[in-house]
Amino acid sequence: MGVIKWLNSSTRKNWHSVVLSVIMGIVMGLMIIPSTRMLTNAAPVKSYVFEGVVMDEDNRPISGASVLINRVGSTKSGSDGTFIIQERRGIGTALNVGDNLKIIVSSKGYETDEQAFELTESKMQTMKFVLYKIN
């Protein structure tokens, strides 16, 4: 078979498809292998629970106080002044021990309390906040 005849033949076109498929298979394989490794070596999902109570200066619970923890979430205190925020995140977004977080607690008629804290090894963070009435 002559070169010109081969270039125009279906055999050459099939051969070209085979080579292209093999190259694409190698490229896709190289992309999948690192992804699989990342999943098998991945850290487990981390979970923290932030709970506490919001009281006034006379040690009475404040119902409906807003509790906001940056990078985590927010909630309202219950009728007994307690609150709970559960934080659960997956790979690459989880909180880490030593992270600095800020918590803001506020309620109508009271001064806002804003505190920074460092996340510890404990998966349960318990806090108490005292809000003072605005004069």
Q: What's this model, at a glance?
A:
The protein is α+β, with helices and mostly antiparallel strands and 135 residues long. The chain has helices spanning 3-7, 10-40, and strands spanning 46-56, 66-69, 73-76, 82-89, 100-106, 113-118, 124-131.
Strand content: 35-45%
What is the topology, as strand order, of the major beta sheet? 3-2-5-6
User: What is the C-level CATH assignment of the largest domain?
Assistant: Mainly Beta
- Report the structural category: alpha+beta
Order of helices and strands: HHEEEEEEE
Q: Can you give a write-up of this model?
A:
By secondary structure, the chain is α+β, with helices and mostly antiparallel strands. It has 2 domains: 3-40; 46-131, Immunoglobulin-like (Sandwich), CATH 2.60.40.1120. The chain has 2 helices and 7 strands; from the N terminus they run H-H-E-E-E-E-E-E-E. The protein has helices spanning 3-7, 10-40, and strands spanning 46-56, 66-69, 73-76, 82-89, 100-106, 113-118, 124-131. It has a 4-stranded antiparallel sheet, with no helix packed on it. The protein has a 3-stranded mixed sheet with strand order 4-1-7, with no helix packed on it. The mean pLDDT is 76.
